[in-house]
Amino acid sequence: MAMAENRRRILHYPEDRLPGRCQTLDYAEAVQLTNPKDPQLQGEVDDKYQYSCANIDNRVHGWISFNPPVGFWQITPSDEFCSGGPLKQNLTSHVGPTTLAMFLSGHYAGQDLVPKIRGGESWKVVFGPVYIYLNSAAVGDDPLWLWEDAKIQMMNEVQSWPYYFPASEDFLKSDQRGNISGRLLVLDKYICTDLISANVAYVGLAPPGDAGSWQRECKNYNFWTRADGNGFFTIRNVRPGDYNLFAWVPGFVGDYKFVDVVKITPGSYTELGELIYEPPRDGPTLWEIGIPDRSAAEFYAPDPNPQYINRFRQYGLWDRYTEFYPDADLVYTVGVSDYRKDWFYAQAPRKKEDNTLQGTTSKSVAWFREVHTN
């Protein structure tokens, strides 16, 4: 199975999840292989959530058969119809062999991302199309070439979006859509008196709402891109309608919302010019823990428990909080502690000897020196 450069692996058989071949872990989806048909996989953890992927990155995933060398791939050229915006995680491929095309999901979010259709309300959204791609190689060739070929096909499909062949009048072709571009800059006088380029900002169009409301959007279309290093962005092939333009900039707190409603019409090209985002603050930053980038990657993630052989997302990593802080919760001392080593990546509960869970509270302590001036 392959879904990303750093997430490719030989998977076990579906039967390896049956009683007698595995041990169920803390939740039903996670098992440890105790007697797999392939002895090389002994002790590995299987959990379909290991293969979740952000919408913006979920472009191709699937399977390779080694004998004969055949590939089966699902390509999703656009995520405009997926709920929750670019960072919403969805399931992809997992043991079965299973290949999923998920458009709406409450995973990792809950009821906020479950569409609610009220009495008398009409609702219509076009999901897909997704592209199923099969490829093959000659016996003796490296089967992993099929993954490389699938990535090339994926890029072709992304460039071909929106497709021309769907007959439904609800699937709009390129000439029935509009485009928008601009440049996003950041004004934070406590950092710099000059405007700062919104380097690789996430910029998107979503139904009108409050700043950040795009994260809960699950009934309509949304269109996202990444700005370049200078803050320039272009969003292409947007369905006609009224939108708010939203953005967030890695390294800066808060959500940006353009003040005016953006109206997209067929064949239009809208140039917004320079947009200025002023992050919310009441004064200069005295100290901070981590980086405001909607990721916990910079915090401390210990090595996994050696009893679990993990491939990607480390099952059981959260339980190590109890090992490090068996009695008292972590205290972060500003000016002394280093969040890369001293701030656990998640606020996890403490597991007690009777296997019950105890809530935890992380604390930060700041030390200040009084300065007198004449």
Automatic annotation (TrEMBL):
> Carries keyword Oxidoreductase?
no
Which superkingdom, per the lineage?
A: Eukaryota
Q: Which residues form the Rhamnogalacturonan lyase domain?
A: 200-271, 285-350
Query: SUPFAM superfamilies this protein is in?
Result: Galactose mutarotase-like (SSF74650), Galactose-binding domain-like (SSF49785), Starch-binding domain-like (SSF49452)
Q: Which Gene3D superfamilies match?
A: 2.70.98.10, Carboxypeptidase-like, regulatory domain (2.60.40.1120)
Q: Name one GO biological process term.
A: carbohydrate metabolic process
Q: Which residues form a coiled coil?
A: none
Q: What reaction(s) does this enzyme catalyze? A: Endotype eliminative cleavage of L-alpha-rhamnopyranosyl-(1->4)-alpha-D-galactopyranosyluronic acid bonds of rhamnogalacturonan I domains in ramified hairy regions of pectin leaving L-rhamnopyranose at the reducing end and 4-deoxy-4,5-unsaturated D-galactopyranosyluronic acid at the non-reducing end
Protein name, UniProt field: rhamnogalacturonan endolyase
**A cellular-component GO term for this protein:** extracellular region
Q: Which family does it belong to?
A: Belongs to the polysaccharide lyase 4 family.
Give its E.C. classification number: 4.2.2.23
Q: Name one Pfam family in it.
A: Rhamnogal_lyase
Native species: Phaseolus coccineus
Q: Which CDD domains match?
A: RGL4_M
Chief subcellular location: secreted
Query: Where found?
Result: Secreted
